Amino acid sequence: MRLSEIPRPANYDDRRLATDLAVLRAEAELWDRLGRLRQQGVAGNEVNASLFNILKGNIAEILARPILHRRLAEIRVQHPGARVEYRTRVARIRGDGGHDTPVLFSDGLIVSERNGRLIIHEAFEVKSGSRGGAEATSQFFEWREGRLADGDQLVLTDGSRFTYEPGRTGPGYVVGMQQSTPHVIAPRGSEHLGTTSGEQVAAAGVRHALGQTASEIDFLARRILEGLSSSSPSAAAAAPASATE
Q1: Runs of H (alpha helix) within the chain
Q2: Tens digit of pLDDT for each residue in 21-75?
Q3: How many separate domains does the chain show?
Q4: In a domain, 61, yes or no
Q5: pTM for the model
Q6: Residue 233 is part of which domain span?
Q7: Would you say residue 243 lies in a domain?
């Protein structure tokens, strides 16, 4: 896709754009799964659409962190040891009793550990597109109502594993998966999409709007990628350029 064809939203003023770019460029996670792109740069003002979407996802997750941190502070009133686990993965159980390679499960979980068990208090899905609310609604439904099976393992960022098996509450098991509050975080204007669909889970959910619209996230991704060039792979780490287009 050609970066120059991504328009700047009319209401996205210089101050907001500069503030958002500064927040994003300060986070190493901006380039998660994009190491090669960052090294090689962008040639001809064009980038693969799948890589562009990964960057948009990273942008939305960084911009969503204040929402998770506010909720974490509230949870810690009753559960002082609670913490956020980002990008948790799940290893699906095989027929032979082994487990597949872990795949992404959740953008964020608020968890605590007690007597060797992993207790899930809240779960978060973050989306970056114009149908973000609907996509997150479907993702919660698919995992909770269909994909998870007894014996699947939740894999945390430090590599530790806890087994999902409802009814088992001993050390090494996950507790509260189905009862945890699902939080949908999506671009402003798309957060309520999916509320009337049939893909609802048992636990009542909460919806949050990012401060940015989907088109503003697109433009942020454009500006970040324009900071890369084949002749200067390190440009993205340099000081932010002027926010003006």
Answers
A1: 14-25, 35-40, 49-75, 132-142, 214-226
A2: 999 999 999 999 999 999 988 988 899 999 999 999 999 999 999 999 999 999 9
A3: 1
A4: yes
A5: 0.86
A6: 3-237
A7: no
